[in-house]
Design a protein that fits this description.
Distance between the termini: 11 Å
CATH architecture of one domain: Alpha-Beta Complex
Radius of gyration: 28 Å
CATH class of one domain: Alpha Beta
Number of helices: 24
Mean pLDDT: 74
CATH superfamily of one domain: Cysteine proteinases
Low-confidence stretches: 109-121, 296-302, 309-385, 477-487, 524-542, 654-663, 666-681
Shape: globular
Strand content: 15-25%
C-alpha cells in the first residue's frame, strides 16, 4: 500500500520515507521486500514516463534502497534479475554506504524470535523439493547437504544402508535424506545433523567456508566406515563372518566409491632426468586461479580439458590418440605421428562450437588435420582472450610446474637440491567430481583473506583426461571405449554438471551460500531398448530436459542452466565456488556403475527401513495437526479484532501465500517464511 503511493507526486516524498523506514528497519526477514518485487519494474517505467524532478529523485533513492535490500537478502537471483534490469540506469551505492544505511535503521534487536512461525505458515514448494531451515549462518551446510542429496547415486546408496551399520554420522545423514525425500513439511531443521557433523574449530553462529565443511564431512564419513570395516575384519578373523558379509565390508568405502579419484604426481630432476612418482587419493580438486600475467592459452600440457556447450557436439573419432604421458619412454617420433607431439591446452567455448565443428586443415604444429582432428579443433576454438573457464583452471592445475630457487627439489639420485619439473596426472576419475575454485586468497598488504571475483564460465559437459596404463588400455578397447595412445596414454572421460554452490559476498567469513542443482542419471524414464535394457540418456536430454532447481535455505524454486551461467553477470559478488560433476558411463571402466546396478539403485527410490518410515509418518501427521491448529488460531485472532476500520480492510484479504525463504542474517541467520502484515506494520 505504501509502495503504490509513490505514483502520486503529492504524497511521494512522505511515502518514500515511510517505505525506507519499513524496509531498512525490519531486517528479520526478506518477505516485506519480496512482496514488492513484482511491482517495481512497472513503477520504474511509470516514473520514467513522468519525467519530473520529483520522479527522478525518487527513482534514485528507490534504486539505492533496492540495492541495500539486494545486499541484505542475497541468494535470490531468479527474483532479482527483472528488478536489476529495471534499475540498471541508476547509480549503484558503494558497500560502505549500503552498510551505513542498513546499520543506521536496523532495530536494536535483530533476534529471530519470530522464526518459530516460519515453517508453520509456509506452504510446500511447487517443485516438490524440501528446504532446510537456516539455524544461524548455516547456509554453508544447507547448500552442501542439498548438493549431496541431489547426487542421486549417493543418495540412493545412503538411503539403502541397513540398520545397525555402526556408522552414527552416516545414519544421521540417512535420516536427513529420508526426511528431505518424504516429509510433508516445506522445510526441515538439520539441527541434529549439524551438531553431529560440526567441525570443532568452527565458531557457532559465524559464517564458514562450505568447501572446508564438505572436506571435513566426507573425511568423517570415510573414516567412520573404515573403522567399521576394521571391526568386521577382526570378526572375520574370529570366524564369525560369512564370505558374503566379508565381501561387502572389505570393498571401498562409500565415499571412495562416489567421490574418490586418484592422481599421480611426478617430479623430474632437470639435471639427471630421474623421475619420482607418487599416487594419492583425492575427493575434490582445488583449482587455483593462474596469475594475471600468465596467458592461459600459451601453457602446454599433455591433453586439453574440453568444454562442451549445451548443444553437445560429439568429438571426433579417437580423441585420445594424440598423446600419452609426457615422461613415458616411447619410440622415436615419426613424422605425422600425432601420438608423439605435445598439445597446447585448448578449450571449446559455447560461442565457437559451430566453428569448431568444421576445423580448418592448417594448424600451428603442422599435424595433418585428418590424422589429428582434435588438434585442428583446438586451434579454431579458443575462448575470448581475457575470459576464464573451468577447463582453463583444470588445465592450469594439470600443467607442469617448475621448481626452482627456494622451491628446488631434493633429488635422491643427485643427492642435492636441483631444479625440477612437477606435473599432476589423473589416473582414476571419480564417479562424482568435486571442483573447488580457490577464490579466497590471503592479501599480505591488508593481512586479510580477499575474494577473487573473476567470472568463470561453467561448462554443462566437461571432458577430463585420465591416464590409462597399458593393460587397462587393452581392457578399455575390448569394451569399445575411447582408444588411448599405444603403450598407454590418456583417454577422455565425460562429466555432466550436477550442482553449483554459489557464494554471495566478498569474504569467506561473511556473505551467503545457495546452490543450483539437478539430478543426472544414466537412464531416461520410460526409455527402453528393444531388448529391455535401459536406454541411455541422449546428450540433448542430459543438457536440456533435466530440471534445474535453486536451493536457498528454506526456499526451493525452479531454475535453469541459463540462470547458473549468468548469475555473476547480474550479481558480481555471486560467484560459483564448488562444482559437482557426475561421470557419464561408457568412457572409463568404473565398477561403481556395476555395483549400482546390482543394488538396484537405478530403478526408483530405495525402500526405507521400518523405524525410519514410522518416524517420517509420525512427523507428517504432527505437521498436519500443527497446520490445523495454526489455521484455527489465526481465524480466532482475526475474528477478535475490531470490525474493519479502513486501514485493516486489505489485511483481512491477505492470503497466507508464501514466497518462502533463505538468506543469512548477520545476527541469527534468517530462514523460514511467513506473513506478518498485521503483526509488524
Amino acid at each position: 500500500q505504501v509502495f503504490s503511493k509513490l505514483l502520486y507526486p503529492i504524497v511521494r516524498e512522505g511515502a518514500l520515507s515511510v517505505l525506507q523506514y519499513m524496509l531498512l528497519s525490519f531486517q528479520h526477514s526478506h518477505e516485506a521486500f519480496h512482496l514488492l518485487l513484482p511491482h517495481i519494474p512497472r513503477l520504474v517505467v511509470s516514473l520514467k514516463k513522468e519525467d519530473s524532478n520529483s520522479a527522478t529523485s525518487s527513482l534514485e533513492q528507490l534504486a539505492e534502497l533496492i540495492h541495500c535490500m539486494f545486499f541484505r537478502f542475497s541468494g535470490f537471483p531468479d527474483l532479482y534479475e527483472p528488478v536489476l534490469e529495471a534499475i540498471k540506469a541508476f547509480p549503484i551505492p558503494n558497500e560502505d554506504r549500503i552498510k551505513y544505511l542498513l546499520g543506521q535503521n536496523a532495530w536494536t534487536s535483530q533476534k529471530n524470535e519470530l522464526a518459530c512461525f516460519y515453517p508453520r505458515l509456509a506452504s510446500k514448494s511447487e517443485t516438490g523439493k524440501i528446504g532446510l531451515i537456516n539455524l544461524g549462518n548455516t547456509c554453508y551446510m544447507n547448500s552442501i547437504i542439498q548438493s549431496l542429496f541431489m547426487a542421486s547415486d549417493f543418495r540412493h546408496s545412503v538411503l539403502n544402508l541397513t540398520e545397525g551399520n555402526s556408522q552414527p554420522l552416516m545414519t544421521k545423514l540417512q535420516w536427513l535424506f529420508a526426511f528431505l525425500e518424504h516429509s510433508q513439511r516445506p522445510a526441515i531443521s538439520p539441527e541434529s545433523f549439524l551438531s553431529a557433523s560440526w567441525p570443532p574449530w568452527f565458531t557457532p553462529g559465524a559464517q564458514q567456508d562450505c568447501s572446508e565443511y564438505l572436506k571435513y564431512l566426507l573425511d568423517r564419513l570415510h573414516e567412520e566406515e573404515k573403522t567399521g570395516k576394521r571391526i568386521y575384519q577382526k570378526l572375520k578373523e574370529s570366524s564369525l563372518m560369512s564370505q558374503v558379509v566379508e565381501h561387502h565390508y572389505l570393498n571401498k568405502t562409500l565415499i571412495e566409491k562416489m567421490f574418490g579419484g586418484k592422481m599421480m604426481t611426478k617430479i623430474r630432476c632437470l639435471k639427471c632426468l630421474n623421475v619420482s612418482s607418487r599416487e594419492e587419493a583425492f575427493t575434490d580438486l582445488s583449482l587455483a586461479f593462474p596469475p594475471p600475467e600468465r596467458h592461459m592459452r600459451g601453457s602446454t600440457s599433455v591433453l586439453p580439458v574440453e568444454e562442451i556447450g549445451p548443444q553437445f557436439i560429439e568429438p571426433p573419432e579417437n580423441p585420445s590418440q594424440f598423446t600419452g604421458s609426457p615422461w613415458i619412454r616411447r619410440k622415436a617420433p615419426v613424422a605425422g605421428d600425432p601420438a608423439a607431439l605435445p598439445m597446447p591446452v585448448e578449450t571449446l567455448s559455447f560461442q565457437e562450437l559451430g566453428e569448431a565443428a568444421n576445423p580448418l586443415s592448417g594448424n600451428a604444429v603442422g599435424v595433418d588435420a585428418t590424422k589429428d582432428p582434435l588438434s585442428a579443433f583446438g586451434e579454431q576454438a579458443c575462448a575470448p582472450k581475457d575470459s576464464r573457464s573451468v577447463p582453463d583452471l583444470i588445465n592450469y592445475f594439470l600443467s607442469p610446474e617448475r621448481l626452482t630457487a627456494e622451491n628446488k627439489y631434493h633429488c635422491e639420485k643427485c643427492a642435492s637440491l636441483q631444479d625440477a619439473e612437477k606435473v599432476a596426472e589423473l589416473t582414476e576419475g571419480p564417479h562424482y567430481l568435486i571442483l573447488t575454485l580457490l577464490r579466497f586468497s590471503f592479501d599480505p598488504r591488508t593481512m586479510k583473506r580477499k575474494k577473487i571475483l573473476d567470472n568463470v564460465s561453467i561448462p554443462v559437459v566437461l571432458k577430463l583426461p585420465i591416464l590409462v596404463a597399458p593393460k587397462e588400455t587393452e581392457e578399455v578397447c575390448q569394451h569399445g571405449k575411447d582408444r588411448p595412445a599405444p603403450g598407454g596414454g590418456f583417454m577422455s572421460v565425460v562429466y555432466d554438471l550436477c550442482s553449483v554452490v554459489v557464494h554471495s559476498g566478498i569474504s569467506s567469513e561473511s556473505g551467503h551460500y545457495y546452490c543450483y542443482s539437478r539430478e543426472c542419471t544414466d537412464t531416461v524414464p520410460h526409455g527402453q531398448t528393444q531388448d529391455g535394457a535401459p536406454k541411455p540418456a541422449s546428450d540433448k536430454q542430459l543438457d536440456f530436459e533435466i530440471q534445474w532447481y535453486l536451493f536457498n535455505d528454506t526456499r526451493v524454486s525452479f531454475s535453469s542452466f541459463e540462470s547458473v551461467s549468468n548469475v555473476t553477470s547480474f550479481f558480481p559478488k555471486d560467484t560459483a565456488y564448488v562444482l559437482f560433476y557426475r561421470q557419464r558411463p561408457g568412457r572409463q571402466s568404473c565398477p561403481l556403475h556395476e555395483a549400482l546396478a546390482e543394488a538396484g539403485c537405478l530403478h526408483g527410490e530405495p525402500s526405507l527401513h521400518k523405524d525410519l518410515m514410522e518416524a517420517i509418518s509420525k512427523d507428517n501427521i504432527l505437521y498436519l495437526q500443527e497446520q490445523e491448529k495454526e489455521a484455527r488460531n489465526r481465524a480466532a485472532y482475526i475474528s477478535a479484532l475490531p470490525k474493519s476500520p479502513l486501514w485493516w480492510r486489505d489485511f483481512d484479504r491477505d492470503k497466507d501465500d508464501d514466497s518462502s525463504s533463505g538468506g543469512c542474517s548477520p545476527a541469527a541467520g534468517g530462514g523460514g517464511s511467513g506473513t506478518f502484515h498485521g503483526l509488524v506494520f
